[in-house]
Design brief:
Blueprint lengths: L3 H16 L4 H23 L2 H6 L8 H13 L6 H11 L4 H31 L3 H10 L4
Helix pairs in contact: 2-6, 5-6
Amino acid sequence: NFDPEQMRQRMMERYKESFGVTDDSEWKVIEERINKVNEARREVGFGGMGMMGMNRRPGAQGGDQARGGQDRQRRFGGEPDPAAEALQKAIDDKASNDVIKAKMTAYRDSVKAKEAKLQAAQDDLRKVLSIRQEAQALQMGLIK
């Protein structure tokens, strides 16, 4: 059985080992910031239309397919983006072009805000890392 918490712990142990951290107080600071980066990454990666739209067929009005996508999002830690849901509803309802344009703008703004949150979390993590640890974090995809 898949245990997300167990997987998260193993990932944290690998980060700690790769970063060569032996001091528990130092690790606590780094781990907290890694968690913020990972949370922001989940929001950017799963909080939008990506997962929700994957299981939808054109013209689907919700039902099991849309709900399945949302259930999958929650299992992987992301919550549906209300702006993405509003855009999908406008598409499904065959709303006017003006309404769809407004929903697209709101969705794009939501994505930009999530990306800015991720960048801020990565910057905060970078501040507590040595150059060697920063290089490791870059290689691991934790920072850009």
